[in-house]
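pipeline/complex-builder :: batch 7 item 3
reading input block
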Amino acid sequence: MTSRSSTSASFPALLAALLTLILAGCGPSDAPSPPGATEAAKASSKPRVALIMKSLANEFFLTMENGARAHQKAHAADYELLANGIKDELDVARQIDMVEQMIAQKVDAIVIAPADSKALVAACAKAQAAGMVVVNIDNKFDQAVLDEKKVRIPFVGPDNRRGARKVGDHLAKQLKPGDAVAIIDGAPNAFNAVQRQLGFADAMAAAGMKVVTAQSGYWETDKANQVAAAMITEHPQLKALLCANDSMALGAVAALRAAGKQGQVLVVGYDNIGAVQSLLKEGRILATADQHADQIAVFGIEYALDLLKSGVAPADKETPVELVTAPAPTR
Amino acid sequence: MAGTTPAWRHWIGEFLGLLIGLAALITVFGLTTDHFLSGTHLRTIANQIPSAVLVATGMTCVLILGQIDLSVGSVLGFAGAMLGVAMTRWHLPLPLAVALALAVGAICGAFNGLVSMRWRLPTFIVTLGMLEMARGAAHAVTGSQTQYIGSAVGRLADASILGFSLPFLVALVVVVATHILMVKTVFGRYTVAIGTNEEAARLSGIDPRGVKLSVFIGTGVLSALAAVIDTSRFQAANPNAGLGLELNAIAAAVIGGTSLMGGRGSVLRTFLGVVIIAVLNSGLAAIGAKDEIKRLITGAVIIAAVIVDVYRQRGVRRPA
Amino acid sequence: MSPAPAPSHPAPVVRLRGVGKTYATRVLDGIDLDLFPGEVHALVGENGAGKSTLCRILSGLTPATDGGMELNGQPYRPRSKRDGEGAGVHMVMQELNLIGTLSVAENIFLDHLPHRAGWIDFPKLYQRATEVLDRIGMRDLDPRTTVDQLGVGPQQMVEIAASLWRQCRILILDEPTAALTEPEVKQLFEQIRNLRAAGVAILYISHRLEEIRQIADRISILRDGRLVGTQPAASLTLDEIVRRMVGRELGAESFAEGRTAGAVALSVRHLRRGHQVRDVSFDAHRGEILGFAGLMGSGRTETMRAIFGADQPDAGDVFLHGNSQPSRFRSPREAVQSGLALLNEDRKAQGLFLSLGIRENLTINALHRLSGFGGWLRRSDETSVVRSWIDKLAVRCHSPDQGIVELSGGNQQKVIVARWLFRDCDILIFDEPTRGVDIGARFEIYHLLADLAAQGKAVIVVSSDLLELMSLCDRIAVMSAGRLAATFRRGEWTQDKIMAAALSEHLAPTRATAASA
């Protein structure tokens, strides 16, 4: 009898544990605290900062989050961190849910890398209205939408267009004016993809290169590989491929290798991920840009903490983008 | 009578529609672009399809069995990740790392098969779970970082025989062998029978479990083999590799006339389905079509192919 | 050929003139037929004679290739079943058309569920369903029962109920009694007579000629897609009907001559499974045909499934060929390997591979005999095997690779019989071997079963057709509510005795309650 009653008692307990786990997965990953604890945390006067990221399946954002976590550990006395990401980079709805959850949790500040530069504005305006400090990192909110909603959300992050321009300018030095080049874009609905394309295009236009085609590789190696392979056969005169991120640059390099055009077509990327380091060394990728992913979120968090303390009217803050090149270009 | 019908008429009926469609695509792209019909471009396509062919081949067998495997793309990612980590971090030699990757595929497939049979769960659900688990595992082992391996693994994809890359030849061999397995052997007959009516098969004295398990393991291994090929092509293992591949594989199988209800499908026709999709993607990229146009056209081609298949079904009776 | 006038009404409600249908071949040709209000018009013919096609044309499921139809003097060209139903033509199909997960009531009123603003009005639904069920004498059936929980017989009654509640002028019943028990048939006939009195024209298709003689006013006989004739039922004898259907004489034969029972091949002891198999023990001998009679739901099919390993028994043993060690089959595969065969009651769901050909359906469980190293199939051997069985059982088809779905029910059944015969099992259990099979093919199957027994195989036949069992079997076991109530030898049995045994458990309530407690 006793064993039976204990199993029946443990089942709801198990269920509860499971639910907590699930909720923890959806909600703040650090402290799945019961409602009472929220008040306690509030009382402790340590500010709670929510970091809402894009896809953690993406190396770039993972680096960003890891940087933030490291920063929080070093400054554990100053603030609490609730870090969350979405599974799919394009899952805008999930990210909106997350912002609303944070509003319900009554955090002090939200630092967000929006998956969509327009769709997240309303939710963040709501957070601001609820008295929270909101800081926009990585992907800048659309100015027109901000104006329409009459909100100001400070942006802390790199200027992707300027970064891409730097990469493009460096590439242009290796080419002759009039050379044919092609651009492989990121996901077309992403602000930073558009910015990077503009930056590449600016640089190419300034140096007198001819952009013969620009197509989306959706940030992915495999898709970029297909696009690049088609580009190099269709435009045999191509001299360079400008890729909006390094994963796609990997795909482009593979396409060149398959077509036996290694060394004849230059490749540049963006983000400076670990996997391209040796390719940079070998000169198979000419250049990439480092946005210091590990620092972007940290800058955002520090900025938010400053704002919480001072309450000064927010302004944008640009973080550095650094050009990374092959040590000794082999041409 | 069946014996007197020439085999070629049967074959034409089976493949004519797909071949006409393929020829039409090639003609259109050949006329609208400058270099589409060049040897290099066709070789490029041949170089791109092996992993898609392998995954679609596995998917076709699963569909013929009346099941579905949504985890193929994630298993590809996971197996590739293991290959990458094995070589970069553990410094295993290539053959051992490849064996490890294939074992990962086999284990994932076995999990799909065993769990769905033990608890009588629809494979849609179990493989949906595996889709998440394998992707999570891929990110866990790589720390979500693309693993650059370099030419140590690249030599697999670079090897070529008679101008065809090794992966392409491997894919061809797998397609032909699987086709023979499905058409000429008892195992294939059982697969079709179980896919048509599992209960009737069971009551006829067939044990569906062995067949099911084998097909799921086979599909897992093929996904892993595709992972090896992809990793070798890119010289890097990306934990996001194979994202959404399951739908591409289903699309290729469906273009090839595979029934989602089970019992009907052909690995050879699926192969043509993969080729059609690859030619379409490649051609549209060569034209420089805008992304939204690409998607519209690809979707329309899938539906058109299935409609054509409906007529093929009606037109080509069994040889009479 | 001149149609005999209907009892009372002079004008036909439906008039068919020169109706024909061509699929790949001509299946129906030049049919002239009149249906009068208030008559039961039987349509008989062998499988493949065109009865079903004619019904499908009349109900709107298939358009006719040529000819014309009139309904109450107006041209009638239904484009769909719904169209036909709108005109008052309803058809209850041979293959049940119910949704298993819904309740009886929901199935009956599926397209006319009573509702308030989209919410189903369940009290009203159940009340109306009860009324309809009451009309066909199924007042014991709870309309809230899920259809899946019912046996085939009650399901058929639900299907009939679903068409009866509508205002219908013409009711087409395709093999309505194939799965019904005697009392259920009686209830159905009562209902048919009520409908006839109300002026409904009923087109009644059945292989059970005795029933047709009971219920029909006129009989139309089809053979090979043509109408042989239409005559008042009273003017035809059974022999005459059969002769005109098959175009030759068929003697009333007994299939139990010249056999002697041999050693025990199968012993079943104290077999139990749930409520449906309660302590069943029997022996089946080589060289005999053992029949299993009983009402619908008496547990015959369940007993056979439990023996065969298709369902796991709760208790009990099965001994083969006098072995002292029991054989426990954990799966049908093990049973088949030990020489057992089970021919299922529900062909479509449990027997056939509908989208495959005759070849695949016939050889599926004996492929080891047709394959070499690595499971490589010897296709030409397979072809000749399939051809030889097609010849032996006179399967009507044009190629071994013809789709099984294109064959008539009887020919499909022959293919499945061939499957088990080719597997060469020596203990063969046939569950309703002639369900939906026409008279000609039926007699061929009887001959086959008799031959098998004569060859020394143990044959068990489960059937709801008592006459079939009585002409075929050496012994008949009768089940009642999960128990084996009695076993009769040839010569000992009468229809009355068998029926009494079949009802015995229902007449002994104390025992039944004791067992269920």
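note: The radius of gyration of chain C is 24 Å.
queue -> next item
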